[in-house]
Amino acid sequence: MKSEQEMHEMWDVSVxxxxxxxxxxxxxxxxxxxxxxxxxxxxxxxxxxGTLRRQGKACILLWMQGGPSxxxxxxxxxxxxNGGETKAIATDVPGIRIADNLPEVARHASKLCVLRSMTSxxxxxxxxxxxxxxxxxxxASVKYPALGSHVAYHLSxxxxxxxxxxxxxRSTPGLAKGGFLGVDYDPFIISSxxxxxxxxxxxxxxxxxxxxxxxxxxxxxxxxxxxxxxxVESHRKVYRQASQMVLSDRMEAFDIEREPGSMxxxxxxxxxxxxxxxxxxxxxxxVPFVEVSVGNWDTHDDNxxxxxxxxxxxxxxxxxxxxxxxxxGLLDRTLVIWAGEFGRTPRINARSGRDHYPRAYxxxxxxxGVRGGQVIxxxxxxxxxxxxxxxxxxxxxxxxxxxxxxxADHEYMSxxxxxIKVADEGSVVEEVFTx
Length: 435
Hints:
This protein is 37% helix and 16% strand. By secondary structure, the chain is α/β, with parallel strands linked by helices. The strands form 5 sheets. Strands 1, 4, 5, 6, 7, 8, 11, 12 and 15 form a 9-stranded mixed beta sheet that branches. The protein has a two-stranded antiparallel sheet with strand order 2-3. A two-stranded antiparallel sheet has the order 9-10.
């Protein structure tokens, strides 16, 4: 933490004999933000429809980065050559069987709606990931917002002083962010759930912290008077929002050590377990969207052992998350999504792996009005073709927004000056809610 004198020196270096320039101002603002202990924290909670806020809906996305194999998770094919060594086990719902890699989740199938007929045409990681994160294919001219950014925009509360979109885990370069909604709706990224977020503690007494904020305002004033008023106002907004977060009592939500040892034990060990626990703490506190990244599922070789290991990391945490949300009365208003960018080929390659396969793959929904204990869609005996109820990515997004009460036809004015809907095309998969 830099002293007030050091901050004055930073200003002198930036301005000095040469006057104030936009570039120097931006550089100084970054340094000042770091000195305040809140560099990189940006969040605007805009007032949205009061009804949605009062409902307190939220979404937890369990993101399987790399493309998980549907045959080793939700759509096993035992007895078929394509099924390999994976077996199917019974769940708590008669007639529904899933892969033996998820025995604890199998006990909560009554909460799950398994979509076995997801389909798209995108087989490259970047394009498929963007599509399954935004509902749109990437374009150079339009910066489409991420799912979490849309949810934050519509469900966030202007009185809430924590980020409205939190992403936990490794952040792959190029992931969708706030897009044309602006940096206000970018995710607040936490690399690990086992430690507090970086730069979110003042490090000094609140009064001294506020004096530093006032000093930053003084530094900005000169630049504002020289023609940079609009830029200064944007930076002041960032500082104000970040400082509210740093000083908020709700920051305790990020500290999983405050959970009883018995609850931490219930979720299990490892980053995925603690990320799922943190996700529950955050939505319980009022964060509307939390994303947990689990990977890497890109199993071109050694698919069976690698997928088994990944499922072992996920099985207990996911099962406990569902039960924990349900026990606390949160599952009725929290949508839990399990998804990746595509599935894996039914045919096993020469390296005992499975390659990219968008033609037929699986996703899972639970909570927030979703009718559990059902499977929608089906694939043939070898998992090659969809035989019942194809679900496009656009249908999937329409269904997610319907569960959350967000109008998918709401139009924003995009960065290129034309209106763009929350979700393009597609239809709600009504069976998700009616069974």
